[in-house]
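Exercise 3.2. Students should predict the tertiary structure of the chain below and write it as structure tokens, then compare their answer with the key that follows.

Predict this chain's 3D structure.
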Amino acid sequence: MARRLAGDRAAGPAAGAGGRPAEGLRSWVRQIMGTAISIATWTGDGGLPDATAATAAAVERAFAELRAADERFSPFKPESQISRLRDGAVRLERCDAEVREVLALCERLRRDTGGYFDAYAAGPDRLDPCGVVKGWAAERASDLLLEAGVAAHYVNAGGDVRLRGQPGPDRLWRIGIADPHRPGELIATVRASDLGIATSGIAERGAHVLDPHRGAPAVELASVTVVGESLTLADAYATAAVAMGPIALDWLAGLDGYEALLVAADGAISGTPEFP
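Answer key:
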């Protein structure tokens, strides 16, 4: 997953001269979807009260969007629409438009990944779209911030990160990629703006990604990080790649506009040619 660097709790701006944090940078953390979700903003307004209050209000709306996604999509909440759909208590056409959108996306991803991304990976009666929902929800939260005029920010939903703008003149956001074999250590640092970064693997939750073709946990890859324009797709592609195991690198290299970094179960590191 993405890890914090100096100056912030989950991800941080690239250090400027002398390593000083960017002025105007603020961050918030909430526990949602069973993980710590952090949002950081850079406004460049010098802390003017009206601008600060408007930014804080936009951040709370973004967190509310993430909570709403959890209520709709969590397969662990009996009253979520996904749980009720899975249990036959509601028909798809009676679900919210967002649920229909995500399930249509899941079907498209199943086709595009040769079946390695599958919301029914655990079985025909085990609907679970979590392999894409977190990235999708974080991207929607970021879109809300952008619409509210918060042009420079990041949303980090448990390692699924959406970067927007820059945290100050001539600065980039700086995201650390965790080493799945050495807790607390990093294997890479991504410096970027306007990018989605998603990591799937064993570092936080063990071997939880299923290979739908075998019906068993995928264990050949310890982690896969995918970067690209869409966090939603990066999240799904990372999940699918973990399920693929050894064939993932060739498949990822064929994706247009996405790059990846892979760590095998034995610690070997590989990646696509233009991983930042």
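Discussion points: Residues 3-20 have pLDDT under 50 and may be disordered. DSSP finds six helices and 14 strands in the chain.
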